[in-house]
């Protein structure tokens, strides 16, 4: 496969240096490439009249450090350092808005599975412009999804609260299956058969004006999920976290995904069945609209979700 530059930013931060995009490389024998033990995060910087604002960076970098901890790794940067570096990198690339991708990984200094007791991992942060993850059309009109044949793994064999590259293989396969079958996205069930989440986003349903989302266990509890839970309460909706069956999903009045990449995206069809009337519902729209106001720091109780340099 010929190497073609995919550069969509000028600089990437790696282990303390601002490195030109094409030089931000690692060795082919890197441990994390072979065994899937890289940790990553994803957050967004939104364009505001006062310049780019990172959205809930404290929570994102805390989760990054927690993911690093559960893998038994260590890094020498604090959340404060990582937030400062992200702002510097966005400024250096001159982006008014962008996606931010921190990653921590083990290089080629070890062979085989065995790791040193507390491996100091490499840390990098990349930024790139990223529009609507499921396209402008999907974002506006809603997406069509299928229940995947792949399931979220058992909690005894996974670390569901951490963003680990290896754990994403199930998501990649589910997404591939959904795409090849003509759907926009996959929904993964948990090992018991209850609805867990999308391939990289959480799910909510609305029934009789009440909002429901699967409780934490098998799913990765997203920061956007937390935003929506808080926004729903602020708007006066009843919200419950509980087990949801595929049958309940089919009979929902509304459904939507949440995540840093998808933001709030309506789901209008599941397994060829229309959700509600088959177009984005009013509660979904209200939550989505409020969420985007929050990304601008325009909703009073949630003003501290946006962070400036
Ligand atoms: C990152 C992620 C989400 C969404 O989390 P956010 O913090 O909202 O971006 C949902 N599910 C999985 C599996 C994820 O990795």
Summarize the structure.
The protein has 309 residues and is of the alpha+beta class. It has helices at 31-35, 57-70, 79-93, 135-141, 168-180, 223-234, 246-250, 282-294, and strands spanning 11-14, 17-20, 39-40, 43-46, 53-55, 98-105, 122-128, 143-147, 185-189, 195-198, 202-207, 210-213, 239-241, 254-259, 263-270, 273-274, 306-307. The strands form two sheets. Strands 8, 9, 10, 11, 12, 13, 14, 15 and 16 form a nine-stranded mixed β-sheet that branches. Strands 1, 2, 3, 4, 5, 6, 7 and 17 form an eight-stranded antiparallel β-sheet that branches.
How would you describe this protein?
It is a single chain. Helix content is 27%, strand content 25%. The chain has helices spanning 31-35, 57-70, 79-93, 135-141, 168-180, 223-234, 246-250, 282-294; strands at 11-14, 17-20, 39-40, 43-46, 53-55, 98-105, 122-128, 143-147, 185-189, 195-198, 202-207, 210-213, 239-241, 254-259, 263-270, 273-274, 306-307. The chain is built from eight helices and 17 strands. The strands form two sheets. Strands 8, 9, 10, 11, 12, 13, 14, 15 and 16 form a nine-stranded mixed beta sheet that branches. Strands 1, 2, 3, 4, 5, 6, 7 and 17 form an eight-stranded antiparallel beta sheet that branches. The model has no long low-confidence stretch (mean pLDDT 95). With 309 residues, it is α+β, with helices and mostly antiparallel strands. α2 (57-70) crosses α3 (79-93). The structure holds pyridoxal-5'-phosphate. Pyridoxal-5'-phosphate (PLP) is lined by residues 42, 163, 197, 200-202, 220, 222-225, 258-260. Residues 42, 163, 197, 200-202, 220, 222-225, 258-260 line the site of pyridoxal-5'-phosphate.
């Amino acid at each position: 496969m010929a190497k073609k530059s995919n550069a969509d930013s000028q600089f990437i931060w790696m282990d303390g240096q601002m490195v030109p995009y094409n030089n931000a490389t690692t060795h082919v024998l890197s441990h994390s490439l072979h065994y899937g033990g890289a940790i990553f995060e994803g957050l967004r910087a939104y364009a505001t009249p006062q310049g780019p604002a990172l959205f809930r960076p404290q929570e994102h970098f805390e989760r990054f450090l927690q993911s690093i901890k559960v893998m038994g790794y260590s890094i020498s940067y604090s959340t404060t350092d990582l937030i400062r570096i992200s702002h510097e990198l966005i400024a250096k690339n001159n982006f008014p808005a962008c996606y931010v991708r921190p990653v921590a990984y083990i290089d080629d200094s070890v062979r085989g599975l065995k790791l040193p007791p507390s491996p100091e991992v490499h840390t990098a942060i990349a930024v790139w412009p990223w529009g609507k993850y499921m396209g402008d059309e999907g974002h506006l009109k809603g997406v069509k999804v299928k229940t995947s044949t792949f399931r979220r793994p058992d909690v005894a064999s996974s670390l569901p609260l951490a963003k680990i590259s290896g754990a994403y293989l199930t998501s990649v396969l589910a997404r591939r299956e959904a795409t090849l079958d003509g759907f926009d996205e996959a929904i993964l069930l948990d090992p018991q058969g209850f609805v867990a989440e999308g391939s990289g986003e959480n799910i909510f349903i609305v029934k009789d004006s009440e909002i429901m989302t699967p409780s934490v266990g098998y799913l990765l509890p997203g920061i956007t999920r937390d935003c929506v839970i808080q926004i729903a309460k602020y708007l006066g909706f009843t919200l419950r976290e509980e087990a949801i069956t595929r049958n309940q999903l089919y009979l929902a009045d509304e459904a939507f995904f949440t995540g840093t990449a998808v933001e709030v995206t309506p789901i209008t069809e599941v397994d060829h069945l229309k959700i509600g009337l088959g177009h984005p519902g009013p509660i979904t729209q209200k939550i989505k609209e409020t969420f985007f106001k929050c990304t601008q720091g325009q909703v009073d109780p949630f003003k501290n979700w946006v962070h400036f340099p």
